[in-house]
Each structure stands twice: as C-alpha cells, then as structure tokens.
Amino acid sequence: MSWIHRMLTVANVSWRSSMSAGRPLALLVSLAVVPILDVACQLMLGGCLNSPALARIGYAGGLVTAACQVATVMASGMTMDREGEIIPEVLACRPMDLAYWIGLGLPGVVAASITGLVTLAGTLALDVGHGPSDFLRALSLLPTALFAGLALGILVGGLGMLTADSFAPLNAVTVLLPVAVGVVVPAEAYPAPLRRFATILPLGATVQAVGGYGLSWTAVLLAEAVRGLVEVAIGLVASVAVLRRIRSGAYLRL
Q1: What does the alpha-carbon distance between residue 173 and residue 67 come to, in Å, rounded to a whole number?
Q2: How far is the C-alpha of 235 from the C-alpha of 240, rounded, in Å?
Q3: CA 197, CA 181: separation in Å to the nearest integer?
Q4: Concatenated DSSP letters for the chain?
Q5: 8 Å CB contact between 35 and 115
Q6: Helices 142-161 and 132-140 meet at what angle, rounded to 10?
Q7: CB 3.0-4.6 Å disulfide test: which of 11, 113, 136, 157 passes with 103?
Q8: Residue 127 near residue 48 (C-beta atoms within 8 A)
Q9: 85: exposed, middle or buried (C-beta count within 10 Å: 0-12, 13-18, 19+)?
Q10: How many CB atoms neighbour CB 47 within 10 A?
C-alpha cells in the first residue's frame, strides 16, 4: 500500500504543478487543439506526397502523438524536480524507484488518453477514404501506445538527468520518432536497412499494425512490452548513474 500511496502522491503533485492544471483554456489547447493541428499537418504532408492511405497517417500520427505526450509530461516533471533539487532526495532514498517514475507518468497517461481519442475520432470524422473497422483497430492500439509512451518517458527522463539539458533526449525522440517509424511514409517503403531499424524502434510495431500488415493485437502488445522493458531498464540504470554522480558531487556541477 505504501508503494501505491507514494505513486499516487507523486501523480497528484505532478498534475498540480503542471502548466495546464487550473487553466481550462490551456488544458483544452494542450489536450485537443495542438494534437489535432499536429495530425492535420501530417495529413497535409501525406496529401502533398500523394499518399494513398491518409487514414493510416491520421491514426498512426494520433497514436505516436499520444505516446510522445506521456513522455513529454514525464520529462517536464523530471526537469522541474531537478531544478527544485528533489531528484537527489528521491534517488538517495530509492535509486530505482518505479513508484516515482510511474507517478510522474500517470497524469500524462490520462491526458494522452483524451488526446488519443480526440485525434482518432478527428481522423474518422474527416472521412478520408476508410471505414469504421480502421478506427476500431487504431482505438484498440491506444492502450499499447500509452504503455509505450510510459516506457519511453522513463527512458528519456533517465537519460535527461545525465545531460546538461534535460529536454535534449525528449526533443530528439519527439522529432525523429514519427519519421523513423513511418507515420507519413510507411516504413515498408524505406530501404531495407532503415526498414529493419524502424521495426525495432518504440511504436514501430504499433504503426505497422495500423497499416494492417498482418500483425495481431497480441503480437503488437508483446513487441511493445519487450521494447518497453528494455527502455525501463535503461532509464533505471541511468538513475543509478545519476546517484553515483550525486554522491561524487559531479551532478551538482551539470
């Protein structure tokens, strides 16, 4: 029970300290307006490239946006805790505290759930040459995308603590990931080396499943779970490395 209490306490503090909390307009913009504009830009880019599957772009873009939103909330919380000198206290007590990490990510998971539903429903409403079955398939992949975002948040959060700029790993991921996994241009159209690389990236299997490339929901969940566990392990190892820096005094000089 103490583990759950700590996790919920961190989640509560993370949400209350977020920029959107208590600001209805800011909440609306962050949860709906910005994600819809992001997916709309991807759809327009696909249209400029004469893509025959605009619905796939909208659904894949919505899922990747939701996952990146979870990671962004976690990285933002880590940055605030770092500037408030909370990180040394947390790591000194528990170097690999999953309750803290998951607590940071819970507000992002809730927000990204709303964002994902809005963007997927928006793609369905645009009626870009697809049926309800495509929407339902994308909707069934939303929980997988949220889990992938949580694991990705632990990864970029841990690596961010090791750099002078805590947002550097997050910025690299959110910019490169949609292109790398084939949101606008399917990864199947990439050269063979890049295609193989795209399949092992976070959300690679999820984006493939949106396109209907024969991947079952169970196979996608298993692939993202395995990748997610690797990302979580790297993030937690990074937190141990940060603790060593704290004890040596080097972390304070970053």
Answers
A1: 11
A2: 9
A3: 9
A4: -HHHHHHHHHHHHHHHTSSSTT-HHHHHIIIIIHHHHHHHHHHHHHHHTT-S-HHHHHHHHHHHHHHHHHHHHHHHHHHHHHHTT-HHHHHHH-TT-HHHHHHHHHHHHHHHHHHHHHHHHHHHHHT-S--HHHHHHHHHTHHHHHHHHHHHHHHHHHHHHTSSSTTHHHHHHHHHHHHHTTSSS-GGGS-HHHHHHHHTSTTHHHHHHHTTSS--HHHHHHHHHHHHHHHHHHHHHHHHHHHHHHHHT-GGG-
A5: yes
A6: 40
A7: 11
A8: no
A9: exposed
A10: 12
Give the chain's length: 254
Phi, psi of 82 (to 5 degrees): -70, -45
In the numeric block, which tokens belong to residue 149?
A: 């975002």
Taking the C-alpha atoms of residue 40 and residue 44, their distance in angstroms, rounded to an integer, is: 6
Give the Cα separation of 78 and 56 in Å (integer). Answer: 33
Distance CA 185, CA 45 (A): 10
CA distance 140 to 135: 9
Task: Identify residue 34 by its one-letter amino acid code.
Answer: V
**Are 27 and 15 in contact, with CB atoms under 8 Å apart?**
no
Q: Kindly provide the b/e burial profile for residues 23-40, where b requires at least 16 CB atoms within 10 angstroms of the residue's own CB.
A: eeeebeebbbeebbebbb
Q: Rounded to an integer, what distance in angstroms lies between the CA atom of residue 187 and that of residue 196?
A: 9
pLDDT for 193-243, tens place per residue?
A: 888 888 888 898 888 888 766 667 788 888 888 999 999 899 888 888 887
Note the pLDDT tens digit of each residue in 145-174: 999 999 998 899 888 888 888 888 988 998
